[in-house]
């Protein structure tokens, strides 16, 4: 059944208190719930959500058992008819039995390696007890946990703890998706934080005994986040404790449950020998993300799940700002744009396109997407650019003031900007309601010292949305003089019509236009630029994003030419050499510029140009260009490789990580011509996982990875997080013709614990990231993936549905591949009892072919 935004109705009861009493047992946990309810509309039936697996043991209204005919269970619903309810306030008490050990979907209460934990967002609470499982029903929770396990945690503040029983009280009203409970044999890394107004907060990161030394970085990240939210947004923490728990089985990255964040262990645990620089950066940003939800998500939550981007877009935007402040803002922006293009543009240009605020869905878990999260954040970045920093600050203060304690909507959000700044946002709102990536064509005219920039915007149709009216698009532009100096600083042009022009007067010579600085809008900018002008921008642009982008465009033009049988010029090779020789330029920036676009990105570009991408030709083209760069610049790359070593003990800070990033970018290229010699040495001597993984990737591409793989297995065979990398890198870096065979062999291993989401994603996601391997022309990559999706769907629908996006670009390939992909998708669709999650995804993808 499809859910529609337009059907929203408030719940006809109010809920003023929830009391839970949970007696834990792996196979038979008992949950007693008391809900204090008041009818708001006479004659309303009380309709509660509750999974079909809940075993109802008792139900009373004000202590009395209703007539059995007044209690109706139908599917995922339990109804107590109005006739059985008082007109005024009453207490509904229920007791249910549940089986956490049997919960392989990791939604609701489940067991992960002996730890009881919960995941309730979006609709998991209905698998714990009967309840109004919707985010606009908010109340205080009092929770009693009974278990012999030593650590018993829930939301809010601890009330009492005795052997076998703990009580918690959360004074802040919240929807049930923010409920959490954890029980297990855990140890804490502890610290404290004193808020601006003097509240001393006890901080704990709970891990399995023996993992304490890998939790310090997460703790430091938490402390930085708490400080930053006070300094930048004026937001303080509001409870006496803040707990974070790391669990091994987790469907997503992490969850912002009030006062008790639960994390996928890969986003908490890190040590130099086991985690890469990228892992450290990601841990810091996800710890921040979940912490920031305390205000943007928890104190102000969403009225309904269509509004998901209200909390996710804003919280991603905030965590991006945090990372920019902690590290290099320029590098962070480029990384974010790369990720946006790889995941969100891909989504927006394919069968799964949807707006940041969708207006219908079948399964909400299918909408925790790059569009809701990352495009949702981009939309806020544009808003900030349009109203300015002061306008943004005023609007946010008003948002927190006006909506604290509310379950709010995108309309509420836009209204605070209108009220705080006086700006009408009716047209801007289209960014929230319309799907698709706008294409903006820019052209230049030069006459008598006047430059005219003309723009034309259009957005291609997306499933269910054919008409795409013009949007407000901020385009940041600067002008460079013939010598490369900036003759006009950044100016934001606001597009609001289908076509528009802007003049720049009083110029003494024709300038070079640096456009879409800072990636000021999530669009595709098309302009006719020759390689010489791009090379000029790569050499001189003062805006780091635009500078990087010029290099990217040069690389893509060389790669698409090579992949379609042409002869690429040497412009890119020469320019990139000049750039990486700039010793004073941030090594991280140089590394980002030196890394060639991936095969998927090249395929996307070709498809965009109206061609059918050939994965094998793309692979060959990219390999050839890498080899040519390496040969052309061998002495330079070799010098960089030697100079960019980081002396002393490993530290994950941005400056050290930047040096390593450039060093391994050089290594990757040198590996194309040195037979893997440097990589082999580095793998043996490097004391950190960043360099070891980079070296391993080089060796695997050359087919020389076996000894290094054996060494890692020997050293880290019992470390799940390292073994996840071990699985994924083999599938990802295998030569394309071997990729499916490598993945199949890995899937046969005893330690391919496929029910663990991280391990499953490592292998299947690794193969999907091997572009030419996954898209093997014989269809073997598709068939292998389909087999595993079918198997996973019966166990964990969320994971299967999410991984099915491996197929989302299928319509753009050749007839042979399309036939294989369609067959694989249809085979999945034909499975009896397929989950709603996977069915929705697969049918949307099939419909596009
Ligand atoms: N709110 C969480 C976050 O953004 C994501 C949880 C989503 N979980 C899910 N099963 N859909 O960090
Ligand atoms: Zn989030």
Automatic annotation (TrEMBL):
CDD domains the UniProt entry points to: M1_APN (cd09600)
The Peptidase M1 membrane alanine aminopeptidase domain, residue ranges: 217-431
Peptidase M1 alanyl aminopeptidase Ig-like fold domain span: 436-527
Residue intervals of the Peptidase M1 alanyl aminopeptidase C-terminal domain: 532-846
Required cofactor names: Zn(2+)
A Pfam family assignment: Peptidase_M1
Keyword annotations of the record: Aminopeptidase, Hydrolase, Metal-binding, Metalloprotease, Protease, Zinc
Top class in the EC scheme: hydrolase
Catalytic activity entry: Release of an N-terminal amino acid, Xaa-|-Yaa- from a peptide, amide or arylamide. Xaa is preferably Ala, but may be most amino acids including Pro (slow action). When a terminal hydrophobic residue is followed by a prolyl residue, the two may be released as an intact Xaa-Pro dipeptide
Enzyme Commission number(s): 3.4.11.2
GO molecular function: alanyl aminopeptidase activity
Keyword Metal-binding: yes
Domain of life, source organism: Bacteria
InterPro entries cross-referenced by the UniProt entry: Aminopeptidase_N-like_N, Aminopeptidase_N-like_N_sf, PepN_Ig-like_sf, Peptidase_M1, Peptidase_M1_dom, Peptidase_M1_pepN, Peptidase_M1_pepN_C, Peptidase_M1_pepN_C_sf
The Aminopeptidase N-like N-terminal domain, residue ranges: 103-177
Family recorded in the similarity comment: Belongs to the peptidase M1 family.
Name of the featured protein: Aminopeptidase N
